[in-house]
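Deliverable D4.2, example record:
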Amino acid sequence: MTDAAEVVARVHREEWARVVAALARRFGDLDIAEEMAAEAFATAVERWPADGVPPNPGAWLTTTAHRKAIDRLRREVRREEKHREALMLSDTPEPLGAIDDDRLRLVFTCCHPALAMEARIALTLRMVGGLTVPEIARAFLVQESAMGQRITRAKSKIKDARIPYGVPYREDIPARVTGVLTVLYLIFNEGYLSSNPGAEAIRSDLTTEAIRLTRLVHALLPADGEVTGLLALMLLTEARRTARVSAAGELVVLAEQDRGAWDRALIAEGHALVRSRLATGEAPGRYQLLAAINAVHTDAPDVRDTAWSQVVALYDQLLRLDPSPIVRLNRAVAIAELDGPEVALAQVDALPLDDYHPYHATRADLLRRLGRSEESRQAYDRAIALTANTAETAYLLRRRDQLAARSS
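Output generated by the structure prediction step:
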């Protein structure tokens, strides 16, 4: 029973986007796609413990969801025309203007410029990333009800505006790609450090899928600097995945990671992409700069060998493109290594990020390094209260408790 439940949970992570995308292509309706996919997974929860897990769970789920959708359309007389269209559709995908991939079609559909950017991101995180409404609401720092309404309105806009389900033709892709990259980056970030306390600390299903889709976009637009930069950034970050959580389930920060456990093939590929962009002589964009920063980190055989002045210089370039408090916070972390924690703390304290847990975690570490233990403990408490990720919580608790042990 438990084994079947675990398989359903794993298959949901791995197959949700594939099932939804197949239904969306077949029926052209995101509501039907999402609802019938959910019903298929609910059926699996009921039947797999008794009947056993099918040899091909994804195909079983897609077939089950497809049958449920047909049954639903047959029951709804008001949708008779849609019913006939669905029954007449061939299982063979229609010709595309670019790459034939159902999930990439779904990404571009959800990221149509007719939708507001926040709606595009939220809808894609739900339909492609498989994130729950609460997870997406946390990512946007809004109420669950408001996020649910935003996603519902976005799906209605796609239906009412008859937005086509497919990858646009090549000449139309550049105008659409910014929103797509934003969404893929957010999906990757949710996998990099899950915001759901009930999920695994690192969701490799999300990081793997984000990389797969970004590779497809890169194949469409190989000369686009930001597409290349995002792919490089993902690869260089993913290369460190196995070293980021200890055997005890605690987050391992960059300075403490076993660099011998990093994936050197991914690092080599990421570095090659970064160098290819540098060779063009074109001004780098945001993702290219973030990739370059990660290239500096992954190039150092030991944290003591990190070229911190280069990291700060890259953050200075990034600030000209994105002068956000979060970029300033990350730059301050590098400043602490270059100019000391006191200089960095003065910069951090000026940032308006009281509800952002990395802000408090950074302050806690800087205060600890300055010997200000009580203030550091308070900052750790605040960071812990704002953190949902179990591995990160374990790390912060240990660091805070070390302060208490040191003072006793």
